[in-house]
Amino acid sequence: MIKYIKNTKTKGFSLIETLAYIFITAMLLTTISSLLMSNFNIRRQLKTSSLIYDDARFIMTQLNNKIHSVTIIDDVRPDAKQIVFYPNGSNDFSLQVENNNLIYRESVQVGGGSPTELTFNSAKTRVENLVLTPITDSNGTPNRGVLIQFNLSTGNVSDPYGYANEEFQTFISLR
Q1: Which of the four pLDDT bands, split at 50, 70 and 90, describes residue 170?
Q2: Does 149 have pLDDT greater than 80?
Q3: Percentage of the residues of the chain whose pLDDT score is greater than 90
Q4: φ and ψ at 55, to 5 degrees?
Q5: Using CA atoms, how far apart are residues 137 and 36, in angstroms rounded to an integer?
Q6: Residue 168 pLDDT
Q7: Going by C-beta distance under 8 Å and a sequence separation of 6 or more, which residues neighbour residue 97?
Q8: N or C, which end of the chain is more exposed by having fewer CB within 10 Å?
Q9: Can you tell me the distance from the alpha carbon of 175 to that of 173, in angstroms, rounded to the nearest whole number?
Q10: What pLDDT score was predicted for residue 79?
Q11: pLDDT at residue 12 tops 90
């Protein structure tokens, strides 16, 4: 008579154990990948926001330095220049938006020097809706300062993490 011996010590995993391991591993990988993607998107958003605020800080510092030395503000609206600033008798300057860049243009009136043209924003940002408004002081003296409003944007509107658009406003008085 032949006896069959049943081996009760099997090696390996059962089907249910294997499916449980696969499910737990998939859940862990999904959680880790979503955390990494969130971290990546937040980093992009912060970088974009930082670019906008760094440009705004630079633009406002430059405008503050240039406008504080002005003695006369000439309102030439509706001309594209809006306002012409006269820091002294030998030159004047104006601010304009051209091709989404904030252009500082200084003209030399006396001495025949060449005009200066500077772009205040970086190549990665766009300046839009620049509005310069001369302000009268409390004594009724006209053009004692200027209210400056502009928008800065960067990135593409369709990219929720790489796009930023901020409106900035400041008042700069004459000294």
Answers
A1: very high
A2: yes
A3: 53
A4: -65, -45
A5: 54
A6: 95
A7: 103, 127, 128, 129, 130, 150
A8: N
A9: 6
A10: 78
A11: no
Q: How many CB atoms lie within 10 A of CB 170?
A: 15
Nearest-angstrom CA–CA distance, 82 and 62? 18
CA pair distance 81, 83, nearest whole angstrom? 6
Q: What percent of the chain has pLDDT over 70?
A: 92
Is residue 66 within 8 A of residue 86, CB to CB? The reply is no
C-alpha closest to that of 79 among 132, 127, 119: 132
Domain ranges of the chain: 15-173
CA atoms of 79 and 90, how far apart (whole Å): 22
